[in-house]
Amino acid sequence: MLLEGKVGYVIGGLRRAGDQQGLTGAKRKTLGAVITYYENNRQHMRYDEYLSAGYPIGSGVAEGACRHVAKDRME
């Protein structure tokens, strides 16, 4: 769903799952924090647009670049 740009569906699904599971206490609080994170950052989760534009959405590109820079400096 996230890769399709459907953050709202994910948020709704998390809410429903929490209600259906009857989460309470620490588990409910953790789920609430996850939902809040998605709500606060949904403008940064336009993965469908990023993929269409050819942007990498994983950390592999940045990690690979860092690995090469660190290796070059160590040699």
Written description of the protein model:
This protein is an all-alpha fold and 75 residues long. The protein has one domain. It contains 4 helices and no strands. Helix 1 (7-21) runs antiparallel to helix 2. The longest helix has 17 residues, at 25-41. The chain starts with 6 loop residues before the first helix and ends with a helix. The model has no long low-confidence stretch (mean pLDDT 92).
Question: What is the fold's blueprint, element by element?
Answer:
Layout: H1 7-21, H2 25-41, H3 47-52, H4 60-74
Helix pairs in contact: 1-2
Key descriptive features of the protein:
single chain; 75 residues; mainly alpha; 71% helix; elongated
Envelope shape = elongated
Strand content: under 5%
- Extract low-pLDDT stretches: none
Give the strand tally: 0
Structural class: mainly alpha
Mean pLDDT: 92
Largest sheet, in brief, is: none
Q: Helix tally?
A: 4
- Radius of gyration over all CA atoms, rounded: 18 Å
| Overall tally of domains | 1
Helix content: over 70%
Q: How many angstroms does the end-to-end distance come to? A: 43 Å
The H-and-E topology, N to C, reads as HHHH
